[in-house]
Design goal:
The chain is about 35% helix and about 20% strand. By secondary structure, it is of the alpha/beta class. The chain has one domain: Peptidyl-tRNA hydrolase (Rossmann fold), CATH 3.40.50.1470. Hydrolyzes ribosome-free peptidyl-tRNAs (with 1 or more amino acids incorporated), which drop off the ribosome during protein synthesis, or as a result of ribosome stalling. This is Peptidyl-tRNA hydrolase.
Length: about 190
């Protein structure tokens, strides 16, 4: 049987947050579903899921968007992991990252949560921080704007122009991580742009 991966896009539910910086993880998961012509369905683990494949023949991918607010993402993630029988090393968490410039994607496994409450809650619920992460750069707020307000703001006009490229890069990173492994994905996405 082909291995199964869970790819979770972190964010907040509802139209108010849909296109905010904090929801970039869910936007990436949307791109992955669109590429495969899949829609999301309600799941009892308090999430919306789309079951698909990386490519015909495998690996299987469960794309998921928790219905909970960001800071309590762990419950739905742990519920999905249990339902599908997926270990943490096959759970890819896609999330926004303040400490990475906008238009940059970085990948890692484990480590701290860097103050990201969604990642913190997932690590707590899974009882480990050792899961792969695709970190989508949103950059720091300009001037003295509070980071908490910044992440809940919609993307600015210039960002919106480049957002499809960023989401595509992050979706590519998820596919490469699952298909070729962390190192190959890091070598491609951490290299300076030509």
């Amino acid at each position: 049987m082909a291995e199964t991966w869970l790819v979770v896009g972190l964010g907040n539910p509802g139209p108010r947050y849909e296109l905010t910086r904090h929801n970039v993880g869910q936007l990436v998961v949307d791109v992955l579903a669109e590429r495969r012509g899949e829609g999301f369905k309600a799941h009892k683990a308090n999430a919306r899921v789309a079951e698909t494949w990386l490519r015909p023949g495998g690996p299987k991918i469960i794309l998921a968007k928790p219905n909970s607010f960001m800071n309590v993402s762990g419950g739905p993630v742990a519920g999905l992991a249990k339902f599908y029988g997926i270990e943490p090393d096959r759970i890819v968490v896609v999330h926004d990252e303040l400490d990475i410039p906008f238009d940059t994607v970085k990948l890692k496994i484990g480590g701290g949560h860097g103050g990201h409450n969604g990642v913190r809650d997932v690590a707590k619920a899974l009882d480990t921080a050792e899961f792969p992460r695709v970190r989508v750069g949103i950059g720091r707020p300009p001037g003295r704007q509070d980071a908490a307000d910044w992440v809940l703001d919609p993307f600015g006009a210039t960002e919106r122009q480049n957002l499809p490229i960023l989401l595509g890069d992050a979706a590519d990173a998820v596919e490469q991580l699952i298909g070729e492994g962390l190192l190959a994905a890091q070598q491609k996405h951490h290299a300076p742009r030509a």
